[in-house]
Amino acid sequence: MSLPRYINTFFRHWPIYLYISLLMAGLLVGFSFTIKPKYTTSSTIWVEQSSFLDSQLQRSSSDGSNYDSPANRKANVLSEYMKLRTFVRDVIKGTPYQVYLGDTVKEGDLIKDIMDNYNIKINGYNSFSIQYNYNAPDRSYDITRSIVERFLYEQREEIKRTGQSTISLLKSQIDAAQRTKDSSESNLKDMLSRYPCTTSALSQDRVLSEEDLQCQVLLQKRDTANSNYNSLVNRLSSTEDMYNAALDGKDITLRVVDQPETYEANTNNKLTFLIFGMGGFLVGAVLSVLAIVALTWTDNTVRMRSHAAALFENVKTFELPSLKTTKPRKLRGGQIIQSPDVKQRMLSHLKWAQDDRNLDNKGGAN
Amino acid sequence: MLGKVNDNQPTQVGEASKTGVQLSIEPVQNGTTKSNLVVKTGSLKPKKTTDANKFALFGNGKRETQLNEEFYHRIQQEFRATPEVGDPLVVGITSSVRGEGRTTTSVGLASAIAQSIPQPIVLLEGDLSRPNLAEELGIENVGLSEYLRGEIPLESVARLTALADLWIIPAGDCLGQDLKTLRSERLAKLFSYLRQEYAAIIVDMPPIEQTAQAARLSGFIDRILLVALAGSTPKGLIQSSLATIPIEKQAGVILNKTTQNMPRLLKNLLGV
Hints:
The complex is a heterodimer.
Chain A: H1 3-12, H2 14-34, E1 39-47, H3 52-61, H4 70-82, H5 85-93, H6 104-117, E2 118-122, E3 127-134, H7 137-194, H8 199-203, H9 210-247, E4 254-264, H10 270-298, H11 305-311, E5 317-321, E6 329-330, E7 336-337, H12 340-365
Antiparallel strand pairs in A: 1-3, 1-4, 2-3, 6-7
Helix pairs in contact in A: 1-10, 2-10, 3-7, 5-6, 5-7, 7-9
Chain B: E1 22-25, E2 37-40, H1 51-54, H2 69-79, E3 89-95, H3 102-116, E4 121-125, H4 133-137, H5 144-148, E5 159-160, E6 166-169, H6 178-182, H7 186-197, E7 200-204, H8 213-218, E8 223-229, H9 235-244, E9 250-258, H10 264-270
Parallel strand pairs in B: 3-7, 3-8, 4-6, 4-7, 8-9
Antiparallel strand pairs in B: 1-2, 5-6
């Protein structure tokens, strides 16, 4: 198998290969017109700094060993939700496509489509975006909107589920802190009644007595108990706010900063046609090459002198090219008109033959 | 109309006619393809013929011959430059199967040699089962078969064509007994006669794979050229045909009707 044979095969039918390539390019450009444009809907969610309840939620959902950014944490939660058929079904329920639910095939296809075509993107420390692609803008919008709404709903439900127990925990801790605080206050009062020590007296530069030291410890315990108590009260307040907000259907830890918006991807433009056209031409060229290879491989004849010389090594090879002459035109009466070149050759040979004969005759006569 | 041959009064006409009998081809009348064979005796001047028929060798309209003279000349030059009477070149042109351009190649090569050297050349049609040379040239199919059966004398078997010094011997009518006709002892006599009288003897042989006649004729031929139709004859068949020809007689393979598809520049670049 030599390269000239392949090249010869190409040049034997090169217009066909060109037509194949052009045809494929045309087909693919035509096909590109039938492709529906892609629409992407995107929405961005802002996550507030982790609150006590949020940290509790985090602790309940994972071991909390690795601290992520709030956006990352929520994005991971959403990502996990999106892997659940139950969650995706709930998403579908919030859209006009809920009619598909119950239809095994359509429901399955829709769930798979949503699972395959969503995308979660972390924008920074506090925000992340959810995107969904589809070739119909309405569907793209509806699904994205429903995902966001469902996610916020699930988060609220989580707060509701965890909030009551968290508030109870905080209240019990506050009670304990109250008791500690009262106890430390009482101990300090007893001490002060027995030994009048003050903070200013303790700071004076003099030799401290044992009572001074006891007084100092009691003062510190009281301050710590107060601080702990106040902190717990604040946390309770914050948690109660979150809980009450959740009960009212709000979530103050998550908010949608960018409402779902739909935009068209770059399809059906000149560049797309060009890419499809070039791709089609390339496919046609590849098909042509395959055809050339197949034709050359299966060709068990000899077409070139060089091929013959290679095949029949010890035998001389000659070639007689096929000359293309104009086919004789037939007139109505059946008379055949010779093509000009052949006729010219005939006349030329005739003249020379006649001249030779004349010369011979003259020689004979002499 | 076939004239009477007078063997006792040999006549020489020009250089080519050493047989004493001048054969020429009558003009084609009114567009008919069949012409009469006229035997001329005792005259130094050949009968004047019309232009239309003299050129019958190169086609009478039926076969618009693709005159590939340049390439025939090249083949002739590569093959053997200058054969002479007394040391003649006896070349057989055969092919694996019919329809590969055997007869066309034979005619072309014979005419090329005839134009190259000032010596008499003869083209012998050896395919008795399917003769077509006479029909192609528009002459009566009388020749080899008739001679081998003893119906015509040796001297009147060859006919001169319009090309000076090119003689032809049509196959004639073998009456359906091609092999039997070729087994005639007269065949050896014919070849020894042709070797004495002509500088080159071109034999249009039957297809080597299809008939047994080729084997019979090859005994009288020095070199055999195998014609293969480019893009048609399978490689295996060519190799098989070559194996049939004795190595010392293998003159080469003529690839007929090759098509020049590749641009010249590319051909030069690839060295093909």
